[in-house]
Amino acid sequence: MPAQPHGRRPASRQLLADYVYQELLSSLMDGRLEPGSGLGIDRMAAEFDVSPTPIREALARLESTGLVHRVALKGYRVAPLFTPEELAELMDARLVIEPAIAQRACAHATPDLIAQLRRAVDDLRTAPTGPTFAEYGAYWEADERFHRLIAEQADNRFLLSGYRSLGGQVQRFRFFGNLGVTDAQYAIAEHTRVLEAFTSGDPDAARDAMREHILRVRDRAVHDAAATPAAS
């Protein structure tokens, strides 16, 4: 059964889907919604005291992340947790696509993009990193925002589609959600080097800095996967 929603529901109908999305995302990331469990739209609408429409909108957004799957004739279900092998494959795919994206994005970076990337790095530095999504959610959001901004600036719809299809940030954080963020000091330093390449307008340096970042994230993920209960 889905966890009961917490917090105050927004009064604006336009914000209801965002509210439901955040509540479900938190439950998925913390494991309160178990892999394979059903996500009945009518039942959740009653629990959230909303119409089915914001539930459908939230589930559609979550489907795009890979956290939930829509099964024919059965509706939505919580996706299985990645295995360590799948996590390694995901990181290898990111290693192929994200350095190329960074190189292209840096080639026509704007002052506004650089300012937004700098803000994301600053947000990483101040975000908490505890084991629950309530504690590390702001860190995840800043991390995801940094990579997404770069992907959007690459100005290539197919590269952007490929980046989005990986769902790399949310899947990695879900896998290690019970540990919190264990590598913040390293990741922030690596993001800073990517930012410096963008600031200096050096596409090759941006490519190399992003490649180094993904490589190091992959190595840390493999190490942590061997220690986390999810690996078993």
CATH class of the largest domain: Mainly Alpha
Shape: globular
**Annotated CATH architecture of the largest domain:** Up-down Bundle
Instruction: Give the tally of structural domains.
Output: 2
Q: Segments where pLDDT lies below 50 for 5+ residues?
A: none
Do you know the CATH topology of the largest domain? Four Helix Bundle (Hemerythrin (Met), subunit A)
Could you tell me how far the N terminus lies from the C terminus, measured between alpha carbons in angstroms?
A: 24 Å
Percent of residues in helices: 55-70%
Overall number of strands: 3
In DSSP terms (H or I, runs of 4 or more residues), the helix count works out at 10
CATH superfamily of the largest domain: GntR ligand-binding domain-like
Structural class: mainly alpha
Give the H and E element order. HEHHEEHHHHHHH
Describe the oligomeric state of these chains in a short phrase.
single chain
Would you write up a description of this structure?
It is built from ten helices and three strands. By secondary structure, it is mainly alpha-helical. It folds into two domains: 13-78, Arc Repressor Mutant, subunit A (Orthogonal Bundle); 84-231, Four Helix Bundle (Hemerythrin (Met), subunit A), CATH 1.20.120. Strands 1-3-2 form a three-stranded antiparallel beta sheet. A hairpin with a 3-residue loop joins strand 2 (68-71) and strand 3 (75-78). The longest helix has 25 residues, at 203-227. The radius of gyration is 18 Å and the shape is globular.
